């Protein structure tokens, strides 16, 4: 897959993994992301290696991120989406989500899924809905997997 980049003013969205600042991503995810607090850096690096990633940058500074787990044919999971607090309120999360949802290699999928505790309204603007029938979904969730001993 070829890398993709999109510039808007001083901001850049790119799928080029060589541009990603693993330390900055790990710092945010391990200390500020309620869904994966204390995640080890090695887990973040491996998740990036095995996913389609969208980095959001101001010049060369990592200010946002999103990760897609997909087979590029039927399903995609959107996860680890964030914008640094200092950059929120500028429309960057909307731009990032629009870019992801319109990404050519993710078109025609039967299903997209995600988990969110606080951004329902953002995702609804792009066609996301609550599960139509949650009785069909199951999970195995180890919520304390990154807990510090």
From TrEMBL:
Family matches, as PROSITE patterns: GNAT
InterPro entries xref list: Acetyltransferase_Butenolide, Acyl_CoA_acyltransferase, GNAT_dom
CDD domains per record: NAT_SF
Family matches, as SUPFAM superfamilies: Acyl-CoA N-acyltransferases (Nat)
N-acetyltransferase domain ranges (all copies): 11-149
Protein name as annotated: GNAT family N-acetyltransferase
Native organism: Croceivirga thetidis
Lineage: Bacteria, Pseudomonadati, Bacteroidota, Flavobacteriia, Flavobacteriales
